[in-house]
Amino acid sequence: MIALCYPCTSCGKCGKFKKDSPLYTPTPTLPCMKCGGDVDLETGKCTKCGEVAFLTAGMRDK
Known about the structure:
Elements (H helix, E strand, L loop, with lengths): L62
């Protein structure tokens, strides 16, 4: 049995990020409501059109 770290530090030692690993977990995606592109989960902005889908911690609406 392979143990996964909690909380995950994204080190990759468990194989979670290797596509040929049985533990591979694809990165979740969030579609942009404006254009249908993918929203970057770290910044909250669409990678295609730049629309802000959500504000991340420490940001506020101006």
